[in-house]
């Protein structure tokens, strides 16, 4: 049984007055960052900084990627109220050992959130990714779809974007103040849709795209969603590289137009050199 979700929404941008290089006044749009405090069974858990485009999916994905809940069915409801900047999560049977499991934190390079529960690193070895392979021409189709995507970034800047693809088809595009919020939102949406990336193989693999760098946390969260191929417009950190190698994940960075770098998992990419200059 899926949880009941509110559909709280908030404006994604806000107009402000600025002065340009000539000292002339202008009005421009900037991202409307806001805080959202998450309560689980009336216990305060974390405060997330977010745009608030899909706060319920964000909360679900956060709980999923922190391994606090194993399935969406464990949650009865997620109620978001922007008047008090809170998200109330009601579980069906509580979260076992929640105090112990949330006590250990590791500071990360994440923006907009900034911490990950330490137990995540301990569970990397248990993650098995599907035998997914991505054609180089499909990668280029993904990058072209991202280029054409209308976004808050184009109008206001200062946000990260993430997307989930199945083959060259974009399933969901999410923007937020931090890439971690965006990937958590996608994870929550996948739960609500009943999508399992581990079932992907052959010609239509699931692919995760992000504008942000591939840190260890981003790699682990992608793997927890069962995604074996991750693409970034940015680069990759050393720990992210080490974790991706352990997971046998294909990671592609500096991906823009028809250029990219394959950091790990080259065997998951069906190389087609003839497509580079098309």
In quaternary terms, these chains amount to: single chain
Unreliable residue runs: 106-110, 112-117
CATH-level-2 architecture of the largest domain: 3-Layer(aba) Sandwich
Question: What class, by secondary structure content?
Answer: alpha/beta
CATH topology of the largest domain: Cytidine Deaminase, domain 2
CATH-assigned homologous superfamily of the largest domain: Cytidine Deaminase, domain 2
- Supply the number of structural domains: 2
Number of strands: 17
Q: Tell me what portion of residues adopts beta-strand conformation.
A: 25-35%
Cα separation of the termini: 48 Å
The largest beta-sheet arranges its strands as 12-11-13-14-15-16
Q: Please count the helical segments.
A: 8
């Amino acid at each position: 049984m899926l949880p009941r979700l509110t559909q709280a929404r908030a404006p994604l941008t806000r107009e402000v007055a600025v002065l340009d290089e000539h000292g002339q006044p202008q009005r421009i749009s900037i991202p409307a960052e806001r805080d959202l405090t998450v309560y689980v069974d009336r216990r305060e858990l974390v405060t997330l900084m977010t745009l608030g485009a899909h706060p319920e999916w964000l909360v679900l994905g956060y709980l999923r990627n922190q391994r606090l809940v194993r399935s969406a069915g464990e949650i009865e409801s997620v109620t978001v109220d922007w008047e008090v900047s809170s998200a109330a999560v009601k579980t069906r049977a509580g979260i076992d050992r929640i105090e112990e499991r949330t006590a250990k934190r590791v500071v990360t390079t994440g923006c907009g959130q900034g911490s990950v529960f330490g137990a995540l690193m301990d569970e990397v070895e248990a993650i098995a990714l599907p035998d997914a392979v991505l054609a180089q021409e499909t990668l280029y189709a993904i990058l072209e779809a991202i280029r054409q995507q209308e976004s808050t970034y184009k109008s206001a800047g200062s946000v990260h974007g993430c997307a989930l693809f199945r083959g060259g088809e974009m399933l969901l595009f999410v923007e937020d103040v931090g890439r971690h919020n965006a990937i958590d939102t996608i994870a929550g949406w996948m739960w609500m849709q009943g999508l399992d990336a581990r079932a992907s193989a052959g010609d239509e693999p699931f692919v995760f795209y992000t504008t942000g760098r591939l840190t260890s946390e981003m790699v682990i969260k992608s793997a927890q969603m069962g995604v074996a191929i991750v693409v970034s417009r940015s680069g990759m950190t050393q720990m992210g590289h080490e974790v991706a190698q352990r997971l046998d994940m294909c990671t592609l960075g500096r991906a823009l137009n028809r250029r990219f770098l394959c950091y790990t998992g080259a065997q998951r990419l069906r190389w087609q050199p003839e497509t580079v200059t098309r």
